[in-house]
Amino acid sequence: MKTRAAVLTGYHTPFDVREIELDEPRAGEVLLKMTAAGLCHSDLHMVDGDNVVRFPIVGGHEAAGVVEQVGPGVTKVQPGDHVVCSFIPSCGICRYCSTGRQNLCNQGATILEGSMPDGTFRMHDPELGDIGAFCMLGAFSDYATVSELSCVKVDDWLPLDKAVLVGCGVPTGWGSAVNAGGVKPGDTVVIYGLGGVGMNAVQGAAHAGAKYVVCVDPVSFKREAAQEFGATHVFATAGEAAEAVKELTWGEGADQAICVVGVMTEEVITDAFAVIGKGSTVVVTGVANPANLTVHVSGSDMVFNQKTIKGTLFGSSNPQYDIVRMLRLYDAGQLKLDELITRRYTLDEINDGYQDLRDGKIIRGIIDYSK
User: Fold this and answer.
1) 51 confidence band (pLDDT: 50, 70, 90)
2) Mean pLDDT of the chain, nearest integer
3) 98 flagged as catalytic
4) Which residues pair with residue 123 across a beta bridge?
5) How many Å apart are CA 148 and CA 89, to the nearest integer?
6) Based on the number of CB atoms within 10 Å of its own CB, is 211 exposed (0-12), middle (13-18) or buried (19 or more)?
7) Is position 45 annotated as part of the catalytic site?
């Protein structure tokens, strides 16, 4: 069949919205009609070269839609089911899934190639040849053929244009605080970056009972919005935040520092390492070009003050469980999703949406396929 999709053909080029060929689902695969796709900074990393991917590739890894067709052997979903896609598939049986680390599933090895686990592709173009699907999804397309391992069936009364956000940004941010950071009641947390991931780190820290949730972002409207999501203190600079933390904790330092800026830098991690106290943790969620070495801290400070720096993928969440759990929290009024969406775009407006993201005008934008 044919589908319209936003294709990247190289670094530092805009998305090209064009009609391409899409294969029917093979064994263990599902055809989805997309309802919504989130505009996440990770797709900009492909544009900017911070994610080393194979071109051409269809972007989009925060996806929600309705099952149109299933291939042989599919048991998880059936036509008509509403699903949110996890950008990391989970098989349930590999070393990592079987030890409770589904976010590290071995089936995710080809997400930057954009191929299925067997190395084959489902998107094609007479001019471009085989086209990858970012994170095995390619959500910037009217239709996509994906692995059933990427699908999480959700309650059909939930609005998919809101539920889409729990495919990446919400669990990544929430889990950075709650799972990787281990935020506990009474803790002091510092969060660097208030985009679509950082705002959910704020929600997670507040939900976990943090006494102080201190946020750093240069964009004023994001600082204002963060207070609606649970921030207790907001600052434009890391220096201002450090002074406040020193006063709030009587000089003890923060318990956690969560680094969720769009592009990670050495400066952010250094500031985070300095703001935490003894026995405390820096969580690094944001990424940079893998060639850039962004962690340079004092080994003596780390040892004598027993500090930890740790990375987290997908917020150390379990996609199959946590996506449903977070939507149940939303349904109960205990998790904000509607408020995260600053603006909706058509697929043809995707480059405008990413420019708005660069310019700091949105918390989360979505491609709304109903528009």
Assistant:
1) confident
2) 97
3) no
4) 22, 131
5) 8
6) middle
7) yes
**Prediction pTM value:** 0.96
DSSP class of residue 176 equals: I
Query: According to the model, what pLDDT value does residue 33 have?
Result: 98
CA gyration radius for the chain? 20
Q: Catalytic residue at 41?
A: no
pLDDT tens by residue, 53-93: 999 999 999 999 999 999 999 999 999 999 999 999 999 99
**Which residues of the chain form beta strands (DSSP E)?**
2-8, 16-22, 29-39, 57-58, 63-70, 82-85, 123-125, 129-133, 143-147, 151-153, 188-192, 212-216, 233-235, 254-259, 276-284, 308-311, 341-345, 364-368
Q: How far is CA 10 from its chain centroid?
A: 22
Do residues 229 and 202 touch, judged by C-beta distance below 8 A?
yes
Interior CA angle at 98 toward 94 and 101, to 5°?
A: 95
Q: Got the DSSP string for 108-134?
A: GGGTTTT--TTS--SEEETTTEEEEEG
Which letter does DSSP use for residue 313 in this model?
Answer: S
Q: Burial code of 175-197, b = ≥16 C-beta within 10 A, e = fewer?
A: bbbbbbbebeeebbbbbbbbbbb
Among the listed residues 42, 86, 141, 316, the single catalytic one is 42
Which residue is catalytic, options 41, 61, 82, 233?
A: 61
- Among 97, 105, 151, 168, the active-site one is 168
Output the pLDDT for position 289.
Answer: 87
